[in-house]
Amino acid sequence: MNGLMGRSALITGASRGIGAACARELAALGARVVINYAGSREAAESVVSDIVSSGGQATALRGDVSDPTSAQSLVEATVDLYGSLDILVNNAGITRDNLIVRLSDDDWTSVIDTNLSGVFYVTRAASKVMMKQRFGSIINITSVIGLVGNAGQVNYAAAKAGVIGLTKSVAKELAGRGVRANAVAPGFIETDMTATLPDSVREAASAQIAMKRFGTPSDVAKAVAFLAGDDAAYITGQVLAVDGGMTFA
Ligand code: NAP
Q1: How confident is the model over 59-69, as pLDDT tens digits?
Q2: Is the CB of 10 under 6 A from ligand 1?
Q3: Taking the domains of the chain in order of start, what are their residue ranges?
Q4: What ranges make up the beta strands (E) of 130-199?
Q5: CA nearest ligand 1 atom 32, residue
Q6: Does 121 participate in catalysis according to the annotation?
Q7: Which CATH architecture has domain 8-240?
Q8: Quick check: 165 pLDDT over 60?
Q9: C-alpha to C-alpha distance for 179 and 174, rounded to whole angstroms
Q10: Predicted confidence band at 249 (pLDDT cuts at 50, 70, 90)?
Q11: Which ligand 1 atom lies nearest to the CA of residue 214?
Q12: Given this model, what pLDDT does residue 1 score?
């Protein structure tokens, strides 16, 4: 089994959806987890309670990944709590969709700030810790949209494509220090992010998926847990699509 007993993990945006599923999965495998959230304190505390009542170790920490100081504090707080930072899951993300001709500067900037710069800020802080430890696994949640693009999501697609380039570069920089970096690219997953999609968009999306259905947060969390642990010890710089066969060539 890909056990994570005693490993410490920081999961950004873990109050809901994919991040919460990742936190539950890593904790079930024995990791001590930090559940980061931006505003949903109650939801984050409820993920913590679930994990603790199942015998795991978890703490909720508020922090905005798009703020470099806050990102640095999240990493420092994880190390203060658990004595190390072994696993980082950069999951926090937002959407602000619109066609390019209608996309405001604010909607461009906020998505880039959270989904791309946020990954950079947290990864930079974590890299210093992991390089010193000569051990660590970084998993960045990108999206199939970063691979194939999507009408109405130029900001999101640009950020997620940027995350892939960032992941591969970090993998090259840190491989010699025992630190791996991989990306997971979910397709359409049932979370708050996709809950508001109109039926017509859902149907069009499902038609593009070989398995003809949206995935679950747990489908993504299983892939993240695999990449986090020693079963993936020789895997770095990869992008693993978890998309029900939406994008394979
Ligand atoms: P979600 O249900 O909307 O949850 C988003 C999470 O990110 C929440 O925990 C939220 O915290 C947190 N967050 C947002 N901005 C933040 C910030 N500035 N700092 C810290 N945390 C922040 O989203 P999801 O569907 O689970 O998506 C998770 C990741 O998977 C995102 O990166 C998304 O782009 C990616 N993804 C999702 C899908 C999909 O179909 N759902 C597909 C491909 C990729 P609060 O609760 O406190 O607001």
Answers
A1: 999 999 999 99
A2: no
A3: 8-240
A4: 136-141, 179-186
A5: 93
A6: no
A7: 3-Layer(aba) Sandwich (3.40)
A8: yes
A9: 5
A10: confident
A11: 40
A12: 52
